[in-house]
Amino acid sequence: LNGSANPIQQQQLARKKLASWVGFSNLPNQVHRKSVRRGFQFVAMVVGESGLGKSTLINTLFETKLYQPKNIPTPGEDRGKTVQIESISAEIEENGVRLNLTVVDTPGFGDFVNNDESWKPIVDNIEARFDAYLEQENRVNRLKVVDNRVHACIYFIQPTGHSLKPIDIEFMRRLHTKVNLIPVIAKADTMTNDEISLFKQRILADITQHGIRIFQPPQYENEDEETIQENEEIISKVPFAVVGSDSLVSSPDGRQVRGRAYPWGVIEVDNEDHCDFVKLRQMLVRTHMEELREHTNDVLYENYRTDKLKAMGVSQDETVFKETNPAAKQAEERALHEAKLAKMEAEMKMVFQQKVQEKEAKLKQSEEELYARHREMKDALEKQRQELEDKKRRIESGRPLTPEKGSQKKRFGLGK
Ligand code: GDP
Question: Which Gene3D superfamilies does this one have (predicted)?
Fold first, then answer.
């Protein structure tokens, strides 16, 4: 580029054709094998009033009985007064790929007479998970970092057919900068197709009006036609109208399907004509799980981390790096010490110059005084010399010296 360009950059820019096979094209396979061996961590949070089908949907999504039926409080039983946070972890495996799945449930959300601030324990939990990750990153040994940050939050909207409720808006507004929000319409089998599409429009309008950012599958350039179309289909279904069921029922044509049987027919969970469950699962698990993890790390966590460090009075991003890297810390200390020395030297120079200037000013003043006195004395001497010259001239010309008044009077006998 130019003379100041860094040589490493220049090396990177040089493109060479290889004469033979070196082997680094196998890198993606190495990464693939390593990540498969290590397994994946994914944390999903479910939020919504009790009874909206959260546990059922999670079991349906991961095709495992992660959740056991909950103890439904009996009348009069103390239900507590705050939102609880409960998490369940399970390691599930598919074709040799291990997924360490954690589901964070938030029982009690929206279930009280007063639901003000029911978002708070949830925000606290998400932030505590960020803090735990930050703390691990700052440790000396960072090899075994466990990622327990919430990668996706499925928010269950009651199938009212109206619009979002204040509690929904408040929750999403508080959470959208901290977590990937995925709104879903719960128990969509309770609404007709027309009602669902109208409800979706109203929900999206509310979301836009309140400036809420929900998770959108990113659209990259140079993507193949199929992926672009897949993404568009997923986006067109947001907020997903879902139906959950973890039991098999017989369809009218005799198939065993996951679904819900009603006197008037069967609603199939895995049938795209019946609900958006397939699209939700496609986004959450099949195509965008890595995207959700990446967005959590690169955007949501990064913003939280920056704000946190700023609040602690740290202005530079590299602070954590310096704290964990002794060489960087030493270099910083040396630079600080050198800056201190340079400052002291500059101060000493300034004081010295000031003193010299003062001395010079004093000397100049006494010199001027000396000159002035010298001039005075010279003038006085000159005056005396002129008077003497005068006298001499008069004596030489024989003229009497100008008598003084008193002496003249004496000479002419006028005096007493
Ligand atoms: P949670 O309290 O939100 O975890 O809700 P559950 O998953 O325990 O479900 C509460 C009740 O709703 C159960 O009787 C479920 O069988 C039922 N349910 C779950 N999902 C659906 C659904 O999609 N449609 C309908 N109609 N009922 C559902």
Answer: P-loop containing nucleotide triphosphate hydrolases
Residue with token string 């930050």: 134
User: Could you tell me the fold of the domain covering 28-324?
Assistant: Rossmann fold (3.40.50)
pLDDT at residue 172, rounded to an integer: 94
Model pLDDT for residues 35-47, shown as the tens digit of each residue: 777 788 899 999 9
For residue range 102-151, what is the model confidence (pLDDT) as tens digits? 889 888 887 777 777 888 889 999 999 999 998 888 877 766 778 899 99
- Whether 158 is in the pocket of ligand 1, judged by its Cβ within 6 Å, is no
In Å, what is the CA distance from 173 to each residue of 121, 166, 212?
15, 10, 6
CB of 50 within 6 A of ligand 1: the answer is yes
The finding on whether 56 has its CB within 6 A of some atom of ligand 1 is yes
Question: 286 alpha carbon to ligand 1 midpoint, in Å?
Answer: 24
* ipTM, two decimals: 0.97
| Residue boundaries of the structural domains of the chain | 28-324
Any residues with CB less than 8 A from the CB of 238 and at least 6 apart, and which?
183, 200, 204, 214, 216
Q: Which ligand 1 atom sits closest to the C-alpha of 186? A: 23
Q: Which atom of ligand 1 is nearest to the CA of 242?
A: 23
Give nearest CA residue, ligand 1 atom 18.
53
For residue 413, pLDDT beyond 60: no
As a whole number of angstroms, the distance between CA 257 and CA 101 comes to 25
* Ligand 1 centre distance from Cα of residue 211 (Å): 30
What is the pTM (predicted TM-score) of this model?
A: 0.70
- Cβ contacts of 341-348, under 8 Å, gap ≥ 24: none
